Amino acid sequence: MKLLLICLDGVRVDLALPEAVASNRLFAGPDHPSDPRFSVGAPDSTSTTEGARSLGVLAPTLARLVRGDDHSEGTIIPMWMTPPTDSGPGWSSILTGSTHEECNVWWNEFVGHQMARRPDILSRVFFANPAARTLAAATWDAFTVGTGPGPIIQQRIDQQRTGQHQPFHPDVSRGIEAADAAVLQWANWRLSHEGPDAAVVYFEGADDAGHSHGADSAEYRAAITRLDEYTRHLVKAVAERHEQLGEEWLVALTTDHGHKPEGGHGEDEVEVRRSFLIAHHIGGTLPQNLRRVSSLRSNEVMDVLLDAIGVHQGHFDSDGIGEVRDIASVGPTRDPAFEW
Ligand SMILES: [Zn+2]
């Protein structure tokens, strides 16, 4: 099965899909405590279901993906982010199946990161089958740009040369909204005409509006609705491939954090830590492992998605793998049997 993973930065699911949040108690509060270093003890600013409903339907495409229909099955799984809830640690964790400690990404600067040891979900697909074709399009340079922070998605230069791995980062000089539109256009053409085996598409518009205007703003809600429509275009592309070619597609969506009413994130407010994983199998029922998951942490997403599409990693275990160890400068005192 092919994978389309759509990453929507900074989307409040209690505003986008209030019914889904209200109907599952596992959306009510975090499933694990936050590190005191990133705790602010702020009150829960989750919107009431009635309050969110009064704002209108913000995300009809997301709702349809969750709901499914006679031919396709969908679900939404509550997910809780581990503070710090900045984008760098959040997306690194989601896309590489790592805790913050494992990838050592704590802030958006990525200083001291271990991403070279924590390959991303697209690379994992490639490692499982080196014939696989992948693409990644992202408004934030930390995803795909080798000279930026990160990158979260490994470069795989050899596969780039042959078009087997295609990364895209738009011109951001005309603003985030235009850059998101460029990501959509680029990804949509390739999804439609090339149908990669796995794709990651990231939009920044909701996060940008949250920072500029806060989660309580009309601008933030409009950004969610715009990205919902972008999502519809991407789903339409792969749905047409299913219809014409019989391809099996798993569409997945997630976010890295919410936003405070006044805007901002990074610590442990409930509405900021709350995330979700939407999964939708176009033209079929959900893979069994997705039915079994009741809630997730960000570092569990990658394995769940890989398992769902049938990707299994090779295994190699031996003493001292990955360790750098020097030998002592003790001169020629070795056993002559080891003299070569
Ligand atoms: Zn973010």
Automatic annotation (TrEMBL):
Signal peptide per UniProt: none
SUPFAM superfamilies reported in the protein's UniProt record: Alkaline phosphatase-like (SSF53649)
Region (Disordered): 26-51
Molecular function, one GO term: hydrolase activity
InterPro entries: Alkaline_phosphatase_core_sf (IPR017850), Phosphodiest/P_Trfase (IPR002591)
Name of this protein: Alkaline phosphatase family protein
